[in-house]
Write a structure and sequence with these properties.
Layout (H helix, E strand, L loop, with lengths): L5 E4 L14 E4 L9 H4 L11 H4 L3 E2 L5 E2 L19 E3 L6 H4 L5 H12 L8 E4 L3 H12 L5 E4 L14 E5 L12 H6 L3 E5 L6 H13 L9 E6 L3 H9 L5 E5 L1
Parallel strand pairs: 6-7, 8-9, 10-11
Antiparallel strand pairs: 1-2, 2-5, 3-4
Length: 254
């Protein structure tokens, strides 16, 4: 799925929202109520509330039929309708083409390393898969003060890299029905942990300004994650290049 990482300007803000017209924001797929148990625990990515936008898509086709709002964003459009919790103001000094990546790839990889892995300063980390999310896990590990960070891409070594007492953080969404197998005896004997990570346990209201600040300080790279930019009428070429593994992130411009 694509179209869930966006940066744009607020055209119209709903009554009672903290957003203002003309404000530049990063738009993510994290839609949160701020009141449920998961939100109160500081896990908005796991919000259990249902929203009107979940029930009825704001997108209509030319014949009047409603189309699914891809990944709760549908950002491959001139305008997108999202819940206020999905839009977070982004400070000046971060280009739109780089800021949009904070919405998923950067928050997910950064959060998986900094938040979910529980990295202690000087700890070692192996990142399996050096794509858009994996590269940001590497960056997050560096920010967290990791000692040795190893990135592994297509390699048989991916099957054995977890030490005794280590933590495996599972990031990303495999196809439905895919199963993984492990030896529970070895898991217990070696004191290993398997941790699921949805969007790096993202907290957009905290993470967007934090990541933007790291970028402006020169401690986290965003510009280098953008392989190419395309106009909207070339979107099929951009997606095809991504599917062929030729890009970290291709960005669609209005």
């Amino acid at each position: 799925m694509f179209g869930h990482e966006a940066c744009g300007t607020v055209v119209e803000a709903g009554e009672g929202t903290p957003l203002e017209e003309g404000e530049r924001v990063v738009v993510s797929l994290v839609r949160s109520c701020g009141a449920c148990a998961r939100c109160r625990e500081g896990a908005p990515a796991l919000c259990s509330a249902r929203f009107r936008l979940d029930e009825t898509s704001p997108i209509r086709l030319a014949d009047g039929r409603r189309a699914a709002q891809g990944m709760r964003c549908g950002a491959f459009a001139e305008e997108a309708v999202v819940h206020a919790s999905q839009a977070v103001p982004v400070p000046d000094g971060v280009p739109d083409t780089s800021a949009c990546l904070i919405a998923c790839a950067v928050m997910t990889g950064y959060g998986a390393a900094v938040r979910d892995a529980g990295l202690a300063p000087g700890a070692s980390l192996v990142v399996l898969g050096a794509g858009g999310v994996g590269l940001n896990a590497v960056q997050g590990a560096a920010v967290a003060g990791a000692g040795e960070v190893i990135a592994i891409d297509v390699s048989a070594a991916k099957l054995a890299c977890l030490r005794r007492g280590g933590t495996l953080v599972v990031v990303g969404m495999p196809p439905s029905g895919e199963l993984a197998a492990f030896d529970p005896g070895a898991l217990a004997h070696d004191g290993k942990r398997i941790v699921g990570s949805k969007l790096g346990s993202a907290r957009p209201a905290e993470d967007v300004p934090r990541i933007a600040a790291l970028y402006r300080e020169g401690r986290l790279r965003l510009d280098e994650l953008v392989t190419a930019t395309y106009p909207l009428d070339k979107i099929n070429e951009a997606v095809a290049a991504m599917r062929r593994g030729e890009a970290i992130r291709n960005v669609i411009l209005p």
